[in-house]
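Worked problem 6 (solution included).
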Amino acid sequence: MDTKDFKTLFQARALLDHLHGMNPGYDIEIIQPKKCWPDIEKRKSPAVMDIIRQQHEVSKEGFGNDIGFEAIVHRNRDADLWIHIMDENGKLIGFSINEGYKVEDQSINYFRITVFYKNIQKQGIYPLLNELKVAIIPADIYLVRTQNPIVYKYFTQMCRQKGLRVSPTATHIDPAALDIARQLIPGVDESSVQRSLLMGEALKGTPKPSAEYAPIWDRMDIYNGDVVVILGYPE
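Solution. The predicted structure is:
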């Protein structure tokens, strides 16, 4: 399917309908960077760098912190999918980056980063955007890193709706899931945590986890830059 046809997907229409309910001028842009710029892994053209700069500006506003321009460049090192949310003036106000991998005989959709401007946060966009990501990059396994318990809630909800197991949970960390995670993130420890990945708390005022998820967050220190690595994987 060509990039221009992705907006005809049911999941894209559902996301657009939701955004139009917020503001009729909102739109989405779906880009496969490696197809648009075949040399992107070796060279970032001026057009690519301009997009990354826009993504960085969104991350600063959305997080309320600056995780650094190089952090956004790094998350675009192997990007297979950009989904951009645009306002009525065509300005970038939200974005996500995903990567697709094949590990042995299993495909992995790696959710690299998702950030929205504050004025569109907590309005039901994230679950719909996730559905579009997995429609465009179908996979056996979904993987995400986060400090945010809201991400954990909706990411794991999607995984379970698709019949996938989830690790970690409050009571269990699956060694098989750790093995899969370490194929892409060698530094994942036995708690399914990557230590000191960030300079500290990415999202200023990170929500506190509910009692249901608190044991997961007790295993890490987000103020030290720790992130939990979450997998959805087949039974």
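Discussion: The chain has eight helices and eight strands.
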